[in-house]
Amino acid sequence: MTARTDGPDAARATRPATPVRSGGPARRSGLVRRHGPTRSGGVPPERAVRPVLGDDERGSGTALSASIIVVLCVTAFWVLVLSGWIASDQRARQAADLAALAGAHAHEKGASACDAAREYAQRNGGELADCDVSAGGGEYIVHVEVSVELRPALAGAPSRVNERAHAGFLVPDEDPAARRAGPNVPESAQDEDGPDG
Length: 197
Description:
The chain is an alpha+beta fold. It has a domain at 63-177. The chain contains five helices and three strands.
């Protein structure tokens, strides 16, 4: 005895089964899988075509960064060098001024002006390179030159910086207007010395 079926169920029963391949999921018709949001045009972001840089453009950012770092390092180095040189020049100028004042004060007291200038130059980190005293007519001027080591020292650059200073005493000049007018004689004295006196 055989069972007989009619209608759509019969067609399904007689259709052979579709084999399933091993190693992957079975495909289903009419089923679309979406992996996250899609861009305009229906292409997922992970499957979108991205521009590929050429070989000549790769590494340009690294070279630019290295160049900027080198420029900054060189600039900082020269700023430090110039700052040190300016400080050395100011130190030499200050030492020369103090040495000249000390020499003038010592000459006024009757001591050696150059010995005092040398001592004060050494106290302020310098060396007395030259000293001279010009005096006459109650006036005197002490001329000194002080040398200070230039820091930082660089190859090919000067090793020392020199500064000059002067100090002393000068007699003030007489007023030219008073010299032309002659001596100031009171009128009473002129009347007493007159011919009728």
